[in-house]
């Protein structure tokens, strides 16, 4: 089967690509509006782009003709929190993707408890096993749809007790959820450990 993307609209290409690029980790992002409304939304076009300093990237699209609230909030306040959700939070992650007016807080609507962040003003979610306090660093626009790739620096990591051993996160204990095509999510299946291979050290530490 061959598909020519020039013959497809943006929505059909989106459905195709989100079924191909799987599974995708989910950045569950809290941000504050200029008026103090705490927004919450999930983004599965998400990865890390630097380790020193630690930097994360999320791709934020539009809702209709305008950008999503998260993009506005991050560019306005330059602070946000990226969370990693586990299986018990799957329904809350999905429900937070509902598009509400900017004056509605998804956190309050879903009844989620928050904690004060230490280095930024944006609160973090108490139930998430991982929360990363971020400051905005760069925004790039891509494609005809002008999706915004937002890059931020992690200024503080919060991890649930027991998740880290010898400096590494125990992935099975984290129990992260991932996004696949459509309103569908995935959990970790079998974890296969292979022999270590030689790699040039990325740094002296």
UniProtKB/TrEMBL annotation:
Residues 19-172 form the Flavin reductase like domain. Its cofactor is FMN. The keyword Flavoprotein applies. It comes from the Bacteria. SMART domains: Flavin_Reduct (SM00903). Keywords: Flavoprotein, FMN. Pfam families: Flavin_Reduct (PF01613). InterPro entries: Flavin_Rdtase-like_dom (IPR002563), Split_barrel_FMN-bd (IPR012349). Belongs to the flavoredoxin family. This is Flavin reductase family protein. It comes from Bradyrhizobium agreste.
């Amino acid at each position: 089967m061959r598909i020519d993307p020039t013959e497809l609209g943006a929505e059909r290409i989106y459905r195709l690509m989100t079924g191909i690029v799987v599974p995708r980790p989910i950045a569950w992002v809290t941000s504050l509006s200029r008026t103090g409304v705490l927004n919450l939304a999930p983004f599965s076009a998400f990865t890390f782009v630097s380790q020193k300093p630690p930097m994360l990237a999320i791709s934020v699209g539009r809702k209709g003709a305008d950008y999503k609230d998260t993009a506005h909030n991050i560019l306005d306040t330059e602070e946000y929190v990226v969370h990693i959700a586990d299986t018990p939070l799957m329904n809350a992650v999905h429900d937070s993707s509902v598009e509400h007016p900017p004056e509605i807080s998804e956190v309050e609507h879903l009844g989620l408890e928050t904690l004060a962040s230490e280095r930024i003003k944006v609160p973090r979610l108490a139930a998430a096993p991982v929360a990363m306090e971020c400051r905005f660093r760069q925004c790039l626009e891509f494609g005809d749809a002008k999706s915004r790739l937002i890059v931020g620096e992690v200024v503080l990591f919060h991890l649930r007790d027991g998740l880290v051993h010898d400096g590494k996160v125990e992935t099975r204990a984290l129990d992260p959820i991932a996004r696949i095509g459509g309103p569908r999510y995935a959990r970790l299946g079998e974890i296969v450990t292979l022999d270590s291979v030689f790699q040039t050290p990325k740094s002296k530490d």
